[in-house]
């Protein structure tokens, strides 16, 4: 039972407790003296992350229709990559379904239902440091049934109307121009190329996606006075989805004013009984 799992736990300056968040009565809040994170197990998404007295850097969709076949709730979620394997819509057993949750001393562990389509499930362990503005998220993909599949773990954080968002700039054989767009739209007026990163400003009438393969593995976005950092280790010599684009940014046009910071793990073939993990680190800086 979720209710039984949501007893309050504290360690040092980390507090983990059940809270109400917007329309959800049984969310999980993790906080220390500096930052706050809120997870909603009813939809399997992290819906709040920010400084204690700062803005929520994650976008929350206030205009959803829960009766739709797929709901863009906002927040942070997991999908299996590459998208070209499943196209659209996302797997309803993974995205937007109710996940189980167990509180830990410095965070929580949450597990998705098993996908009927792919025979996989995700497990996420979220841990907050007692001091500072950092969170570590360990995402695990488990293959429990069905034929082998080549998959990647894909973490997507939807960021609320950022002033700018950036991804690494690094020339590689798979990304010869240092970064690459997913389509041929002209976005030059909203793009600044620096020595080590590419900075994008959201366009009100154009939605577009970019990717790169930087060895820093770091994405950033500025929301208010907060800079949201999202980082994962880049593994040299491994194969990544989308022609090697390990770091990705999607910029949404109005009226959905958000950007997606997206990180993917290396591709792996999962047979029944296999699992692997992909760790992503969040940090709030000024």
Concise overview:
The chain has 286 residues and is an all-beta fold.
Order of helix and strand elements from N to C terminus: HEEEEEEEEEEEEEEEEEEHEEEE
**CATH hierarchy class name:** Mainly Beta
State the CATH architecture: Distorted Sandwich
Q: Give me the CATH fold name.
A: Beta-galactosidase, Chain A, domain 5
* Outline type: globular
Quaternary: single chain
Radius of gyration (Å): 18 Å
Number of E strands: 22
Sheet of most strands: 10 strands, antiparallel
Count of helical regions: 2
Low-confidence stretches: none
Proportion of helical residues? under 10%
Biggest sheet, strands in spatial order? 7-8-9-10-22-18-17-12-15-14
What integer is the average pLDDT?
93
General description of the model:
With 286 residues, the chain is an all-beta fold. The protein has a single domain (2-285), classed as Distorted Sandwich (Beta-galactosidase, Chain A, domain 5), CATH 2.70.98. The protein has two helices and 22 strands. The strands form three sheets. It has a ten-stranded antiparallel beta sheet with strand order 7-8-9-10-22-18-17-12-15-14, with no helix packed on it. Strand 7 (100-104) and strand 8 (107-111) form a beta hairpin. The longest helix has 4 residues, at 2-5. The radius of gyration is 18 Å and the shape is globular.
């Amino acid at each position: 039972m979720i209710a039984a799992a949501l007893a309050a736990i504290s360690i040092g300056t980390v507090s983990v407790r059940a809270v109400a968040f917007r329309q959800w009565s049984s969310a999980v809040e993790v906080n220390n003296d500096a930052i706050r994170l809120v997870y909603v197990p009813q939809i399997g998404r992290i819906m709040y992350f920010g400084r204690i007295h700062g803005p929520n850097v994650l976008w929350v969709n206030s205009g959803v229709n829960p009766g739709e076949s797929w709901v863009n709730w906002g927040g942070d979620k997991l999908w299996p990559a590459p998208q070209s394997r499943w196209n659209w819509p996302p797997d309803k057993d993974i995205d937007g379904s109710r996940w189980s949750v167990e509180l830990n001393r410095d965070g929580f562990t949450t597990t998705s239902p098993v996908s009927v389509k792919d025979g996989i499930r995700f497990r996420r362990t979220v841990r907050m440091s007692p001091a500072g503005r950092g969170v570590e998220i360990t995402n695990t993909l488990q293959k429990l049934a069905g034929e082998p599949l080549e998959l990647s773990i894909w973490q997507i954080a939807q960021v609320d109307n950022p002033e700018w968002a950036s991804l690494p700039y690094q020339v590689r054989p798979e990304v010869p121009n240092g970064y690459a767009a997913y389509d041929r739209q002209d976005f030059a007026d909203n793009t600044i190329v620096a020595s080590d990163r590419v900075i994008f400003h959201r366009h009100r009438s154009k939605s577009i996606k970019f990717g790169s393969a930087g060895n820093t593995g770091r994405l950033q976005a500025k929301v208010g006075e907060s800079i949201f950092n999202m980082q994962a280790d880049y593994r040299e010599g491994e194969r990544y989805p989308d022609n090697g684009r390990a770091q990705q940014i999607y910029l949404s046009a109005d009226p959905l004013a958000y950007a997606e910071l997206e990180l993917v793990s290396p591709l792996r073939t999962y047979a029944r009984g296999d699992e692997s993990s992909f760790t992503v680190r969040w940090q709030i800086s000024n």
